[in-house]
Each structure stands twice: as C-alpha cells, then as structure tokens.
Design brief:
Elements: H1 2-38, H2 41-54, H3 77-81, E1 86-92, E2 97-103, H4 107-110, E3 114-116, E4 127-132, E5 154-159, E6 162-174, E7 189-197, E8 204-212
Parallel strand pairs: 2-3, 4-7
Antiparallel strand pairs: 1-2, 1-5, 3-4, 5-6, 6-8, 7-8
Length: 214
C-alpha cells in the first residue's frame, strides 16, 4: 500500500511538471527564434542601410507628386534619376506628417519619404512593421516633428489601397544598436517608427510604438 502511495505521489508530481517543462521549452524556442531574427542577414542589412542614411543629410527632389508644394532647387541628377518603390503613405496629424511610404531604408529611399524596413512585416500584417524617416532636413518635413507625438495619438498608414490606423502606446529613446525595439509578435499588428534624436544628431533613436486599432 505504501508503495502504491509513493507511485501515486510521483505520478502526481510528474503530471504537474509536464506543463511547466512544456512552457519552459516553448519559451526557450521562442527566445531562440527571436535571437535568430535579430541576427538575420536581412534585418542587419536593413539596419546598416538605415544607419548610413541617418549619417547623411537628406536631399529632397525638387518636386515629389502629392507631398506638398514643390521647392525650386538646383538640379540633382543622381537624386532625380532614382525612383523608389512607392507602396503607400503615412499620415500623423498630431505631428503634421504626410509622407510617401517607400520600400527600403537606404539614403536614396529616405530622400523621398518614410521608408519601410524590408526585413519587417508590411503594414496591417501580424508582427512588427518598422518605418523610418529622416529628422534633420533641408526641405520638407520628413519625421522632423515625430517628437510631438504623444501616447494615444493616431497614425494612419495607407498600403494597397487600405488605410490602417495605429494608436501610439509607447515612446522610447534608445541607442542605434538596440534591436529589441524591432522584436516580433505573432498575436498582434504593431508599428514602430524610427528616427534620429536629438535633432541634428545620430547618437540615439527616437522610437514610437503603435498598435493597430482599425
């Protein structure tokens, strides 16, 4: 009888430990996938492009359709010859932002508007969609007033003829190599906006996180 009781106690302990072990294993696998994502060649390439773009002063082409009034300036063949892949627009009323959304985060891309980091999900998709923009500028607004955004402000991203509205829920200042702000999720659609801070400097990144609300 005593032997049976011992076995029953042992079996009970095992039944308790099984879900705990399963949870720990799942968490381990999630952390492993997260590290693989943060160290992926695609994400590293996007961040390297972004760092290079942020070290250069943006030069807006003399006229970009739909971005506001054109500003006359000397011809810049290298800029004018490049046509980015336009995928939509991004609008933030509280920061007077209304920009083209282009694919890519190179300096050439960010000269035309805000750039989607290619290694991250697209607007409206599950996961963390990252969009970057210049803050110090010569012409146009870019993300110059991104610092005006407050928690609760709305951000609209137009993509494939659909408008996705996000609500800002977190504002951070991080170092350029802090990739944790690009962490992914498989349960929600979130948005991460990135620019330099303070203005005119490349020492830190201003991060705005938003959650999809409609």
């Amino acid at each position: 009888m005593k032997k049976i009781s011992t076995w029953l106690i042992a079996a009970g302990i095992i039944l308790i430990l099984i879900p705990i072990a399963g949870s720990l294993y799942t968490k381990h696998q999630q952390n492993k996938l997260y590290e693989e994502y943060l160290n992926s060649p695609e994400l590293k390439s996007s961040l390297e492009d972004l760092d290079s773009a942020f070290t250069e002063s943006p030069v807006t082409p003399s006229a970009i359709e739909g971005t506001g009034s054109a500003i006359e300036e000397p011809t810049k063949p290298a800029v004018e010859a490049y046509k980015p892949a336009v995928i939509g627009r991004i609008k933030i009323p509280s920061a007077s932002i209304n920009l083209l959304l282009v694919e890519g985060s190179t300096s050439k891309d960010l000269n035309w508007g805000a750039g989607h980091l290619t290694a991250t999900p697209m607007p409206g998709e599950i996961g963390n969609c990252a969009i970057a923009g210049h803050r110090n500028y010569t012409f146009g607004s870019y993300f110059s007033r991104l610092g005006d955004i407050k928690v609760g402000d709305q951000i609209t991203v137009e993509y494939k003829k659909t408008a996705y509205t996000y609500e800002a829920y977190e504002i951070l200042t991080v170092l350029p190599d802090d990739t944790s702000v690009l962490g992914q999720t498989d349960k929600a659609s979130i948005l991460t906006l990135i620019t330099c801070t303070p203005k005119g400097s490349n020492t830190h990144r201003l991060i705005i996180h938003g959650k999809l609300i409609s």
